Amino acid sequence: MQIYHTLTPVEAPRGSAVALGYFDGVHCGHRLVLGSAVRCAARQGLAPAAFTFELPGNQTLKGGRILSARQKHRRIAGLGVEQYMEPPFEAFRTLSPEAFVQQILVDCFHAQAVFCGDNFTFGARAAGNVERLQALCGGAGIEVHIVPMAQYGAQAVSSTRIRAALEEGRLDDANAMLGAPYAIDWPVTHGKGIGGSRLGTPTVNQNYPPDALQPCTGVYLTRMWLQDRWWPAATGIGRRPTVDDSAKAAVTCETYVPDFHGDLYGQAPVLEFHRYLCPIRKYPTLADLAALIRRAAADSKAYFAAQTVK
């Protein structure tokens, strides 16, 4: 996937089919919009494309980011998008709806068709809606396709609902709305070494940056992508009260990969969350904590052995 960070003409010699949206989370609704553009491009011999944007300081529209930029790009590329434009919001925030259509859809994408959700807005101060988009694009010879919002539990899928599900430990709901397992790929950092030196369960530390959404604290059944394959694992997100019960203890994200041995510092492996197991609590002894970690890892191995997850 070719990624553009400025407003510039994309590689689309026969024109493009463009998905429009912010795509935070790349959830089921986003996948419908992106997939519709990709399928249209295949039918009509166009370049499959997407237009989104990046907010200043890694901000998000309505809360902490669900996916890192790398994860977002990986998932959108996996849907078949080839031309992807993600300029800073400041680069086009003052454009009128008319200028947005001309400068971005016509000049940059040579768009023949565009796809968006029924709540899409554009132009300075969100002055344009889907009806305005249809009118302006009609004058430029661009087809406009409004994609109905995806539904889950009789309600529209949204990033706000996904954030709430993750924060409340409803991982099954979050993953269903995302259309893929929730995952992180934060860089591996050094911890205090307690897992390896005192518990016999060395962990991979991938602590959340301040701008990221942090899921509910607890123990999760996870898997990590290492050496070109998935490894069953157990992940704890929380303050580790058994080893540090101070009120100022930092929240950590630590993963035990029982069958893997190697140095991952400085790397950013993908960690997928598949099942919420139990809350974090203080154990009487370190031996009790170590036993929980090993049980969780064994549960993870059994879980993935019984799954057809690829």
Helix-strand layout with pairing:
Blueprint: E1 2-4, E2 16-20, H1 28-44, E3 47-51, H2 69-78, E4 83-85, H3 97-106, E5 111-117, H4 130-139, E6 143-147, E7 151-152, E8 155-156, H5 159-167, H6 171-178, E9 183-184, H7 194-199, E10 203-205, E11 218-226, E12 229-238, E13 252-256, E14 271-278, H8 286-305
Helix pairs in contact: 5-6
Pathway: Cofactor biosynthesis; FMN biosynthesis; FMN from riboflavin (ATP route): step 1/1; Cofactor biosynthesis; FAD biosynthesis; FAD from FMN: step 1/1
Family: Belongs to the ribF family.
EC number: 2.7.1.26, 2.7.7.2
Structure characterization notes:
By secondary structure, the protein is α/β, with parallel strands linked by helices. The protein folds into 2 domains: 8-152, Rossmann fold, CATH 3.40.50; 182-305, Riboflavin kinase-like (Elongation Factor Tu (Ef-tu), domain 3). The chain has 8 helices and 14 strands. It has helices at residues 28-44, 69-78, 97-106, 130-139, 159-167, 171-178, 194-199, 286-305; strands at residues 2-4, 16-20, 47-51, 83-85, 111-117, 143-147, 151-152, 155-156, 183-184, 203-205, 218-226, 229-238, 252-256, 271-278. The protein has a 6-stranded parallel sheet with strand order 1-4-3-2-5-6, with helices on both faces. A 6-stranded antiparallel sheet has the order 9-14-11-12-13-10. Helix 5 packs antiparallel against helix 6. The radius of gyration is 22 Å and the shape is elongated. The two termini are 22 Å apart. Residues 177-305 form the Riboflavin kinase domain. It holds the Pfam family Flavokinase. It catalyses: riboflavin + ATP = FMN + ADP + H(+); FMN + ATP + H(+) = FAD + diphosphate. Its EC number is 2.7.1.26, 2.7.7.2.
